[in-house]
């Protein structure tokens, strides 16, 4: 069961000890200088107090050695913090290539989770222990933030774009999940649980549906059905007269735009192309695609993207 909320939550991911080490280093340096500076002030206050109302202190002309010392030591310390922090940030910002992808949609006031194997859940996230997990997240309304204190990961979840977060759980158990961005009346109630399971138990959980439910459609299958139902195939499928770019092999490739720019195709670009097709028109195509803004939910868009990714071998790793 969930333990009572602690000031310093237990460490349950590979990132947690690294984050804590940097935090404690900063805390240690801060405490050291607080004691040194406040202590010095108090000692000097007493030691150099004015003993005689007519006393004139001797003039001080500065000390080059002292000035260099108190410039160089802080410089070295902040450089250590900078490089340490930058390295940790780079680790957090770049999910490992073999991470399991899970889609997350935040809305007032719940977390909706979609596993690639089909299983869906609300306000609960089941993951296996010892496997890196990457979350692809967006919001249906306002900004939320996906915060798991035991993993030391917190990431804003922003409408209109995808953000990612990743972690590798090191201990089976149940952990707090919070929304960490004020998002309206029930913000404080937008909480859930992350359930870390042994890999075998996790596989069994993935296969088991909710009691009595039909086998869940995978996002790829759901996306394929949408692709037909929304008429995407009339322009984007092989033999459709190629009025739109072909989608096989598209994910992770570089596309050129009419205006001369280019981009590597990732989830964010695919989402934009569905919602605002004219924003970055691929060179050689007419601006004939209608917008699907308002016609598709964020989950639908994620399903379409899952389908488009599945058309690229290797599962379309995010570049
Ligand atoms: Cu969602 Cu605060």
Structure overview:
There is one protein chain. Among the domains are: 108 residues, Sandwich (Immunoglobulin-like); 92 residues, Cytochrome c-like domain (Cytochrome Bc1 Complex, Chain D, domain 2, Orthogonal Bundle). The protein is 34% helix and 20% strand. The strands form 3 sheets. A 5-stranded mixed sheet has the order 3-2-1-5-8, covered by helices on one side. It has a 5-stranded mixed sheet with strand order 4-10-9-6-7. The protein contains 7 helices and 12 strands. Strand 1 and strand 2 form a beta hairpin. By secondary structure, the chain is an alpha+beta fold. The structure holds dinuclear copper ion. The site of dinuclear copper ion has 9 residues, from loops.
List the helices and strands and how they pair.
Blueprint: H1 15-47, H2 64-93, E1 100-107, E2 110-115, E3 120-122, E4 124-128, E5 132-139, E6 144-148, E7 153-157, E8 163-168, E9 173-179, E10 192-197, H3 199-207, H4 219-229, H5 233-236, E11 254-256, E12 262-264, H6 267-275, H7 298-310
Parallel strand pairs: 1-5, 4-10
Antiparallel strand pairs: 1-2, 2-3, 5-8, 6-7, 6-9, 9-10, 11-12
* Ligands, ions, cofactors: dinuclear copper ion
* Order of neighbouring strands in the sheet with most strands: 3-2-1-5-8
Number of helices: 7
Radius of gyration, whole Å: 27 Å
Question: Which topology of the domain at 100-207 does CATH recognise?
Answer: Immunoglobulin-like
Portion of residues within helices = 25-40%
Q: Helix/strand/pairing class, anyone?
A: alpha+beta
> What's the N-to-C terminus distance?
38 Å
Multimeric status of the protein = single chain
Write the CATH architecture name of the domain at 100-207. Answer: Sandwich
Instruction: Give the overall pLDDT as a whole number.
Output: 86
Output the helix-strand order: HHEEEEEEEEEEHHHEEHH
């Amino acid at each position: 069961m969930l333990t009572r909320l602690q000031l310093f939550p237990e460490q349950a991911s590979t990132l947690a000890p690294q984050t804590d080490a940097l935090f404690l280093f900063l805390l240690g340096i801060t405490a050291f200088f607080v004691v040194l500076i406040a202590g010095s002030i108090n000692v000097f206050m007493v030691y150099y107090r004015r003993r005689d109302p007519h006393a004139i202190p001797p003039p001080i002309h500065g000390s080059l050695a002292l000035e260099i010392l108190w410039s160089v030591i802080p410089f070295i310390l902040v450089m250590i913090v900078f490089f340490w922090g930058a390295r940790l940030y780079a680790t957090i910002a770049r999910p490992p290539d073999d991470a399991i992808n899970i889609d997350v949609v935040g809305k007032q006031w719940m977390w909706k989770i979609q596993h690639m194997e089909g299983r869906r859940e609300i306000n609960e996230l089941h993951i296996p222990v010892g496997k890196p997990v990457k979350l692809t997240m967006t919001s249906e309304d306002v900004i939320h933030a996906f915060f798991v204190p035991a993993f030391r990961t917190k990431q804003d979840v922003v409408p209109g774009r995808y953000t990612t977060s990743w972690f590798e759980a090191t201990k089976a158990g149940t952990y707090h999940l919070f929304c960490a961005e004020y998002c309206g009346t029930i913000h404080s109630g937008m909480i859930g649980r992350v359930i870390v399971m042994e890999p075998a138990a996790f596989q069994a959980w993935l296969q088991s549906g909710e009691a009595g439910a039909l086998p869940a459609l995978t996002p790829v299958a759901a996306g394929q059905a949408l692709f037909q139902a929304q008429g995407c195939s009339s322009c984007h499928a092989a033999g459709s007269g190629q009025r739109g770019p072909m989608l096989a092999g598209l994910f992770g490739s570089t596309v050129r735009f009419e205006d001369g720019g280019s981009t590597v195709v990732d989830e964010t670009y695919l989402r934009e192309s569905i919602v605002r097709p004219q924003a970055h028109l691929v060179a050689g195509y007419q601006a004939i695609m209608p917008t699907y803004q308002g016609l598709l939910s964020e989950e639908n868009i994620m399903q379409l993207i899952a389908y488009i990714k599945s058309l690229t071998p290797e599962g379309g790793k995010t570049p």
